[in-house]
Design brief:
Elements: H1 2-22, E1 37-38, E2 43-46, H2 52-60, E3 65-68, H3 76-81, E4 85-88, H4 98-110, E5 115-118, H5 125-138, H6 142-152, H7 159-166, H8 189-208, H9 222-241, H10 244-247, H11 250-271, H12 275-296, H13 314-320, H14 323-331, E6 349-353, E7 359-362, E8 366-367, E9 375-376, E10 385-390, E11 397-402, E12 408-413, E13 423-426, E14 431-435
Parallel strand pairs: 2-5, 3-4, 3-5
Antiparallel strand pairs: 1-2, 6-7, 6-14, 8-9, 9-13, 10-11, 11-12, 12-13
Helix pairs in contact: 4-5, 5-6, 5-7, 8-9, 9-11, 11-12
The structure holds zinc ion (ZN).
C-alpha cells in the first residue's frame, strides 16, 4: 500500500511539473535567459543570468541595470563586462517590505534603464518586484500588474506577492529613499548573518519535508538552497579574511571553517540522497552556529565606534556604558517620557546603537509622534533591529533589540504614519546620533 501511495504521489508530482511547464510564458520561450519576460519598455524580468549568452541577450535588449531580489550573490564581473551594473535588494516570499519598495523606487529614479529585475528562478519574486516597479514607473492598474504574475506563472502559494502587487500604494514624495547596495554584503557581517538566518529557515523547512521540495513552497528547491547556504558561509569567510578584527581571531576563523566544511558535506549527503546523514549534519551545523553565536554575536561587529571584542560580560558593559545606557540596553529599562535628548531632535544623520555602534535608524524616517520618545517608521535596513515578543507589564508588546548586540532599544507599535504604519518607539539613551556633516 505505501508503495502504491508513493507511486501515486510521484505521478502527481510529474503531472504537476508538466502542468507548470505548460504555463510558461510562450512569447519568450526561445530565450537563453531563464523565463525572460518583457513587462514594459523599461522593465524586464526573469531568472538569474549566468552565461555569456544570457548577458548578450540582455545587452541586445539594451539592459543597463540589473536588480537582484534573490539572496544569492550574482556574477558582478560578468555583468560589468557587458556594461551593466547591479543593485541587490533581497526580498522575502511572503511579503514585500517597505524598504524593498523604496529601494526599487530609488533604482527607477536614479539608475539608467532599461532594467532587468530577477530572482533565482525567475517565476515568483522577480516578476512580483517587476510588476511593482511597473506600477511605480507608469501608474498601471492592479489588474495589468497582476497579469505579469500570471504570465510569469507565479505560484498562488505565495499569496503575499500577489497581494502586494494588487494592493500597491505609492509613497508620498517626502519619504526618504534608502541606500542601494551592489551586493548585500556591503552592509557588513551583520547583514550577511541575517541572510544566512533566512536561508537557515528554508533549510530547516527542507529537512521537515525529508529534503524534498514541497508543492507549498515551489520556489524553495533543495539543491539551490543548500548551495546558497554554503555560498553564504563562504562569503562570510571572505569578508572575515579581509578584516583583521575577525581574521586574527583564530577560534572564530576555525568555527567558520568548520561550518563551511559541514555545509559542503550537507550538500553532498543530499546529492547522495542520504537523508539520515543530512539530518545529522544539520544538527552539527545547528550546534556549531549556536556555540559561535554564544561566543561572538554580542559585540563582534564592524563599527567605527567600538573596538572589536568577544561577547561582553555585564561587568564589561558596565564599564563601557553610562549608567543610563546600561539600564536601558542591558536591563531593558525605559527612560521617562519627554526626558530623552533625541525626542524632538530634527538634526539629520544616522542613529546608531549606543552599545555597539550598529546603524539602526535614519533621521529621514524620524517623526514627531507626541509619545515622548524618539519615533521612527522604518529601520536603517532590514535586519538592523530584531523583534522580540515582550510579555512583561501584563500585556503583549513587541520589543525592539539591536540585532548585533541584542541591546534593548524600545518597542514597535502599529500606529505609525504611512507608508509603514509602524512606530518604532526608541529610548534616546539607547542610541547615538551620528550627524551628517
Ligand atoms: Zn547594538
Amino acid at each position: 500500500m505505501p508503495t502504491h501511495f508513493s507511486r501515486l504521489s510521484l505521478l502527481a508530482l510529474v503531472l504537476s511539473f508538466t502542468w507548470t511547464c505548460s504555463e510558461l510564458p510562450t512569447e519568450d520561450s526561445h530565450s537563453s535567459v531563464p523565463f525572460l519576460l518583457k513587462v514594459s519598455e523599461r522593465i524586464y524580468t526573469g531568472g538569474q543570468p549566468k552565461t555569456a549568452g544570457d548577458f548578450q541577450e540582455l545587452q541586445a535588449l539594451g539592459i543597463k541595470t540589473l536588480v537582484n531580489v534573490d539572496g544569492a550573490r550574482p556574477d558582478l564581473s560578468l555583468a560589468k563586462s557587458y556594461d551593466m551594473s547591479y543593485v541587490h535588494i533581497p526580498m522575502h516570499y511572503d511579503t514585500v517590505e517597505p524598504i524593498v519598495l523604496l529601494s526599487l523606487q530609488r533604482v527607477l529614479q536614479e539608475r539608467p534603464g532599461p532594467f532587468y529585475i530577477h530572482c533565482h528562478h525567475g517565476k515568483h519574486r522577480g516578476p512580483a518586484a517587476a510588476a511593482l516597479a511597473w506600477r511605480m514607473d507608469e501608474d498601471v492598474s492592479s489588474e495589468e500588474a497582476l497579469s505579469v504574475l500570471r504570465r510569469a506563472g507565479t505560484s498562488k502559494n505565495y499569496p503575499g506577492l500577489w497581494r502586494e502587487v494588487e494592493g500597491y500604494q505609492s509613497f508620498p514624495s517626502t519619504v526618504a529613499l534608502p541606500p542601494l547596495f551592489e551586493v548585500a554584503e556591503v552592509g557588513g557581517f551583520t547583514r550577511l548573518m541575517a541572510e544566512i538566518d533566512r536561508t537557515w529557515d528554508h533549510v530547516k523547512m527542507l529537512k521537515s519535508h525529508n529534503w524534498q521540495g514541497s508543492s507549498l513552497h515551489p520556489d524553495i528547491q533543495p539543491q539551490q538552497e543548500l548551495s546558497i547556504f554554503r555560498q553564504q558561509f563562504e562569503d562570510a569567510e571572505k569578508l572575515a579574511k579581509a578584516n583583521p578584527a575577525y581574521s586574527e581571531d583564530l577560534d572564530f576563523m576555525d568555527s567558520l571553517g568548520e561550518v563551511i566544511a559541514l555545509s559542503e558535506e550537507l550538500e553532498s549527503a543530499f546529492q547522495k540522497k542520504n537523508v539520515s546523514r543530512a539530518d545529522s549534519i544539520l544538527n552539527s551545523i545547528r550546534q556549531s552556529c549556536k556555540e559561535c553565536h554564544r561566543s561572538y554575536r554580542n559585540g563582534k561587529i564592524e563599527t567605527s565606534m567600538e573596538p572589536k571584542s568577544k561577547k561582553k560580560t555585564d561587568a564589561e558593559w558596565e564599564m563601557t556604558l553610562t549608567p543610563e545606557q546600561y539600564h536601558i540596553l542591558r536591563e531593558a529599562g525605559t527612560e521617562a517620557p519627554f526626558t530623552g535628548k533625541y525626542t524632538d531632535t530634527e538634526k539629520s544623520g544616522t542613529y546608531c546603537c549606543a552599545g555597539c555602534g550598529s546603524e539602526l535608524f535614519q533621521s529621514a524616517h524620524k517623526f514627531h509622534s507626541g509619545c515622548g520618545w524618539p519615533s521612527f517608521y522604518l529601520p536603517f535596513h532590514e535586519g538592523a533591529v530584531t523583534e522580540v515578543e515582550d510579555l512583561s507589564h501584563g500585556s503583549i508588546r513587541v520589543e525592539i533589540q539591536c540585532t548585533t548586540c541584542e541591546g534593548h532599544l524600545g518597542h514597535v507599535f502599529e500606529d505609525g504614519p504611512p507608508p509603514t504604519g509602524l512606530r518604532y518607539c526608541i529610548n534616546s539613551g539607547a542610541i547615538l546620533l551620528k550627524e551628517t556633516p
